Amino acid sequence: EIVLTQSPATLSLSPGERATLSCRASQSVSRHLAWYQQKPGQAPRLLIYDASNRATGIPARFSGSGSGTDFTLTISSLEPEDFAVYYCQQRNSWPLTFGGGTKVEIK
Amino acid sequence: EVQLVESGGGLVQPGRSLRLSCVASGFTFDHYAMHWVRQAPGKGLEWVSGITWNSGYIGYADSVKGRFTISRDNAKTSLYLQMNSLGAEDTALYYCAKDTGNSLHYMDVWGKGTTVTVSS
Q: Strand A4-7's sheet: what is its strand order?
């Protein structure tokens, strides 16, 4: 099973700041990685798939990069609605796995 | 509107069984793979199981393999999860999710979830 490790666990930032979230895989997942956003009491929302492709309706301030074992989700300028928990997920091999999440909180 | 509605959750004693259902609408159900993903209280997401569009391939997390069975009825646009030998570790909110394609990749539509509590 591929283990995804997200860091940091919590990121404290102010609106307007840039957020950089990391996801590291225990073995290569090529570019087969997605990012999700989850707000309290809501289901997750797909943001990025295949490392760098934005899902339908996702604002351009969200971008993804990386390949192999190291991936990054960048939010260029945090909006108030971006404070949430973010998860990465790989689909390169079975079983599908999620990372433990990064909480982006208001500083 | 694309929608997934889960049902079947509840309080169940350890060792007992439960069957979850998910009814889909607003998209061509038999064109897409489907998943179950769970979230224990205050914890992260855990992929539970997935099934391709034609049930040709089914996958399970190691934590549920041999105890849970996923199935689908394309005529009824429904997804199911039969859960046997439930334990406290299965207590969670269970989400039904639509895949982005006909194989098992990513999840682009999610239901609101149904809660399963395993307790005596």
A: A4-7, A19-25, A70-75, A62-67
Q: Which of B115, B94, B89, B102 is nearest to B29 (CA)?
A: B102
Cβ atoms of residues B112 and A43 within 8 Å: yes
Amino acid B117: pLDDT: 98
pLDDT tens by residue, B30-54? 999 999 999 999 999 999 999 999 9
B110 contacts A44? CB cut-off 8 A: yes
Tallying the residues shown for chain A, one arrives at 107
B60 touches chain A (CB under 8 A): yes
Task: Judge whether B85 is closer than 8 Å to chain A, CB to CB.
Answer: no
Distance (Å) from the alpha carbon of A7 to chain B's nearest alpha carbon: 14
φ/ψ (deg, to 5) at A46 = -70, 125
Peptide linkage before A95 cis (omega within 30 of 0): yes
Question: Are A71 and A33 within 8 A, CB to CB?
Answer: yes
pLDDT of residue B102: 84
Q: Which amino acid is at B92?
A: A
- For residue B110, what are the contacts with CB-CB under 8 A and spacing of at least 6? A43, A44, A45, B4, B37, B95, B96, B97, B98
CA distance A6 to chain B (A): 12
Q: Phi, psi at residue A93, to the nearest 5°?
A: -150, 160
Quick: pLDDT tens for A1-56.
999 999 999 999 999 999 999 999 999 999 999 999 999 999 999 999 999 999 99
